[in-house]
User: Fold this.
Amino acid sequence: MLRVGLTGGIGSGKSTVSSLLAQHGAVVIDYDRLARDVVEPGSPALDLIAERFGAGVIAADGSLDRPALGALVFADPEALSDLNGITHPAIRSLGHDRESAAGPDAVVVHDNPLLVEMGAAAACDVVVVVDVPVEVQVQRLTTLRGMTEADARARIAAQASREERTGAADLVIDNTGPQDELASIVGGLWDELVSRAAAKAV
Ligand code: ADP
Assistant:
């Protein structure tokens, strides 16, 4: 099994790369999904969140009230760090479980926007970073995702910097060009990953 970490700043094109890799045959583990799964009603992480942040972060139906929690951790680094201390280990453990379900020859892609922030890069055989300049992120988020420029810039600023991310990379995918160019870059990436998986299996 080849363990691939895939990350990129918001709007970089990480999800596009992830779905292209899935089309080639990668087993993709979506960490946005895992982050929602670990706080489902009845989960140990949700109980811990309610203990730390109070009953006000639980909605009437027992689910996590994300806006209420967001308001508490926004601009409070200590609260955010407490929250991450609850959710990150649960997410890591669920990612590990999902990985164990893949076959021995699989190329497993951990599609994780916070791979670097969570310190999860070291556990990967290969770290792939989708990279674009900040101005391209802002332009795509505002034109394609309907965000305001201020919102886009705030979200980008809340993540690891471009340099922190590429510093952790083994392979950098430049997604400044058009989408068809990205598809061909990802075709080459897939060949590289398959050959690394074969080399590892020997
Ligand atoms: P991320 O997962 O990194 O936030 P996405 O893969 O969702 O980013 O891409 C953000 C937006 O940019 C999407 O609407 C996507 O279709 C578009 N996009 C991705 N790559 C390109 C590209 N090379 N050129 C133009 N638009 C792109």
